Amino acid sequence: FSDPASNLGLEDIIRKALMGNLEERQE
Amino acid sequence: NRMYLVCPMNTSAHVDPQKSGHEVWEEFSQSFTPAVREVVEFAKKIPGFRDLSQPDQVSLLKAGTFEVLVVRFASLFDVKDRTVTFLGGKKYSVDALRAMGAGDLLNSMFDFSEKLINLGLSEEEMSLFTAVVLVSADRSGIENVNSVEALQETLIRALRSLITKNHPNESAIFTKLLLKLPDLRSLNNMHSEQLLAFKVH
């Protein structure tokens, strides 16, 4: 339980949303 | 056997005890995930945010998303009616939420929301303040602290000039806004303690 935020998979949602337009830029 | 999920990011406060933990999470993430995505889209538009390193963007968002959501959804806490509206549209009285187990965090959220809304900020002012909130998030995970500090300073300066321009004889508003930052941090800490009791598999 060291990092409560990761309890919600927050980092995963953030990474996907941040990377979102990286994939668009690559297309 | 948890019966309630007293978090306005959920569609409603009630949890079907027959549902598995995963199903409860699925339902919660239907409203929570879009709200987090909206914070990320907002961050991308903050001048200078994308110039930070990728890991630092992730760390700031991870540390600051809760505090941005508190500001973004302050209006869910209706001080006059003493009700909280969940993202699913359901409205609950404070008493009902207390009966479900809500405690100090609920009181502090109401207190914060009331004071923020009473400042009567314009959309532009609220947006700039929200940007300051994000870049003022906890920096323990940040690699390049100097670049985050520089971005914070720029945004605070912009906030001050916007507030001074729009409220020439109410200089206290800017000070009150800065004092909201530590308030947000303590709400974040209180909320993190609640999260420790809620494990997502």
Written account of the structure:
The complex is a heterodimer of chains A (27) and B (201). By secondary structure, chain A is mostly helical. Chain A has one helix at residues 10-26. The model of chain A has no long low-confidence stretch (mean pLDDT 71). Chain B has 201 residues and is mainly α. Chain B contains 7 helices and 3 strands; from the N terminus they run ααβββααααα. Chain B has helices spanning 21-44, 54-72, 94-99, 104-118, 123-135, 145-166, 172-196, and strands at 77-78, 83-85, 91-93. A 3-stranded antiparallel β-sheet of chain B has the order 1-2-3. In chain B, strand 2 and strand 3 (91-93) form a beta hairpin. In chain B, helix 2 (54-72) crosses helix 5. The radius of gyration of chain B is 18 Å and the shape is globular. Chain B starts with 20 loop residues before the first helix and ends in a 5-residue tail after the last helix. The mean pLDDT of chain B is 93. Classes of the chains: A mainly alpha (27), B mainly alpha (201). Chain A binds chain B through residues 1, 4-11, 13-15, 17-18, 20-21, and chain B through 29, 32-33, 36-37, 40-41, 44, 54, 57-58, 61-63, 65-66, 192-193, 195-196, 198-200.
User: Based on DSSP secondary structure assignment, what is the total number of beta strands of chain A?
Assistant: 0
The helicity of chain A comes to: 55-70%
Say how many strands of chain B there are. 3
- Describe the strand arrangement of the main beta sheet of chain B, using strand numbers: 1-2-3
Largest interface: A-B, 16 and 23 residues
Overall form of chain A: elongated
Average of the residue pLDDT scores of chain B: 93
Number of helices of chain B: 7
* Alpha-carbon distance between the two ends of chain B: 15 Å
Unreliable stretches of chain A, pLDDT < 50, 5 or more residues?
A: none
Class inferred from helices and paired strands of chain A = mainly alpha
Helix content of chain B: 55-70%
Radius of gyration of chain A: 12 Å
Report low-confidence residues of chain B grouped into runs of 5 or more.
none
The arrangement of helices and strands of chain A along the chain is H
